[in-house]
């Protein structure tokens, strides 16, 4: 395993660990998910460049577009919840409250 892959694996696992342990604010959750998506993008870009197959070179660009859509949706939800509830604490958000 090369040093680059080891660093990418550890950064993905750190994002996953941050997602599972620090679920107090919605903004922290979005940052952890975005870090995981960027790590996946880098892994896929390295994978496609090492294989030299022209049919899968579009996959990292599609993943980057999907992560941009995910980030915009997450920020829209963050703005909507902070306007309605006044905070982005996850403990105050509940599906039973309106």
Automatic annotation (TrEMBL):
Q: Where are the transmembrane segments?
A: 28-47, 59-80
Per the record, what are the reactions this protein catalyses?
Answer: a ubiquinone + NADH + 5 H(+)(in) = a ubiquinol + NAD(+) + 4 H(+)(out)
Source domain of life = Eukaryota
**Pfam families, sorted:** Oxidored_q2 (PF00420)
Q: Where, per UniProt, does this protein localize?
A: Mitochondrion inner membrane; Mitochondrion membrane
For this record, the Gene Ontology CC terms, alphabetical, are:
mitochondrial inner membrane; NADH dehydrogenase complex
Cite a single GO BP annotation: ATP synthesis coupled electron transport
Task: Look up and give the membrane topology term.
Answer: Multi-pass membrane protein
Recorded hits in InterPro entries, A to Z, give: NADH_UbQ_OxRdtase_chain4L/K, NUOK/Mnh_C1-like
Question: Does the UniProt entry include the keyword Transport?
Answer: yes
> Cross-referenced PANTHER family, in alphabetical order?
NADH-UBIQUINONE OXIDOREDUCTASE CHAIN 4L, NADH-UBIQUINONE OXIDOREDUCTASE SUBUNIT ND4L
Give the UniProt family note. Belongs to the complex I subunit 4L family.
Protein name stated in the entry: NADH-ubiquinone oxidoreductase chain 4L
Q: Which organism is it from?
A: Takydromus tachydromoides
Q: What is the lineage of its organism?
A: Eukaryota, Metazoa, Chordata, Craniata, Vertebrata
- Which gene is annotated as encoding this protein in its UniProt record? ND4L
């Amino acid at each position: 395993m090369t040093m680059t892959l080891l660093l990418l694996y550890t950064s993905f696992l750190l994002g996953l660990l941050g997602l599972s342990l620090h679920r107090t604010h919605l903004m922290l959750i979005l940052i952890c998910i975005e870090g995981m998506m960027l790590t996946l993008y880098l892994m896929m870009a390295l994978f496609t460049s090492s294989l030299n197959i022209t049919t899968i070179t579009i996959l990292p660009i599609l993943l980057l577009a999907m992560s941009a859509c995910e980030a915009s949706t997450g920020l829209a939800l963050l703005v909507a919840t902070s306007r309605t509830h006044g905070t982005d604490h996850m403990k105050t958000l509940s599906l039973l409250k309106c």
